[in-house]
Amino acid sequence: MMKRQTLFLFLFVVLLSGVAQAKTGDQGASQKQASIEGFRSAQFGMNERDVMKAISKDFRISRDKVSRFEHPNEKTVSLGIDVEKLLPNGGPAKVFYILGHKSRRLIHVNVIWGKPATPKPDAENVIATANQLRNHLAQKSYQKEGLALNAQLSEGVILVFQGLDKKGRAVKLLLVNPKTDADPKKAGENISLTLSYIEKPGKPDVFRIKDGDF
Description:
Strand order of the largest sheet: 4-5-6-7-12-11-10-9
Number of strands: 12
Distance between the termini: 56 Å
Number of helices: 3
Number of domains: 1
Largest sheet: 8 strands, antiparallel
């Protein structure tokens, strides 16, 4: 078990060190400009019916296997699916397609590995997936503003990658490894990795109480 703990810490350091160098629009002239339009066949602006069709096309998942729920505060609608393998050795993932409060069209997609996609996540595989995705995302060119690579936000929380395309749409990769007690057996037991595609990160279509309502 100590060997597992040591390897986990090593992989965590590798993640922090960063082997990829994300390029800004000015520096990465030879790179292809990032264009963040959604996730696979599901494109921002699609209505619920079209998102369902995209899910069926991408994953061969029937409508009855798609969970649907409304956020109690934001009043958005989420369509959730379970996918056994999105990346080699990445393990099971959950994908959530979020439809805006007013528009009822796709505004946000979250892809999650680790908790809660699997009850007992393999921390080493989750971190390896974070590294693979960071390196992949960093191959394209993004705006200077908002660009981040392996930024430690707080204890156990790393913004592995964040970038904005020319239209201000965002891709964000967040690794969360909550602190546990000193028992090495529990190291990484609640780790999670979330890949997000966001249409309007600064102005999300969510319910808000207006000035003057109260």
